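Run log // design_07
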């Protein structure tokens, strides 16, 4: 039965009938129960392709992106995040280039995950690209990145980041 709902959700997404997508998704949950990851992927992908970034990022029907994540966890439906950190970083940078990031968007979580996975270099590149586009990182994101760079023995990059912070009047809490 779930493949049928996946087909219906995908068809509504392609037709840009987002209200019908949400209705079908809610109906599917009531009739069949816990959706699998693929159903959530179809839902999020449909919102992204239709340009409804608020819903895709969780700012519409779902109170926040974390709310959707929590719902998946409650339903014992673990989201597949392995190997997708670099893609997430690229997506955030692409959103920034297109002017689609909400004002004050905090990408601290992405920096923290990248540094935690040993990708401090990519986190550093991403922060620099976002910063150049006017998306100033939070103090916590910078402190996390400095620590990640220090652990990765990239002291010159850490010093460069410190200089940029001080130029912008941001005093890190180290």
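design_07 sequence
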């Amino acid at each position: 039965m779930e493949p049928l709902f996946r087909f219906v959700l995908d068809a509504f997404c392609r037709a840009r009938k987002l209200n019908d997508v949400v209705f079908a998704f809610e109906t599917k949950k009531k009739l069949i129960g816990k959706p699998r990851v693929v159903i959530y992927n179809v839902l999020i992908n449909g919102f992204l392709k239709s340009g409804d970034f608020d819903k895709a990022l969780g700012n519409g029907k779902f109170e926040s992106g974390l709310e959707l994540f929590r719902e998946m966890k409650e339903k014992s439906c673990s989201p597949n995040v392995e190997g997708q950190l670099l893609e997430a970083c690229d997506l955030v940078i692409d959103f920034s280039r297109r002017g689609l990031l909400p004002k004050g968007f905090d990408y601290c979580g992405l920096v923290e995950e990248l540094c935690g996975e040993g990708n401090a270099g990519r986190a550093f590149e991403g922060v620099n690209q976002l910063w150049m586009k006017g998306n100033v990182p939070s103090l916590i994101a910078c402190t996390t990145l400095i620590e990640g760079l220090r652990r990765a023995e990239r002291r010159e990059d850490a010093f460069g980041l410190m200089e940029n912070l001080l130029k912008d009047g941001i005093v890190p809490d180290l």
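Confidence is low (pLDDT under 50) at residues 57-66.
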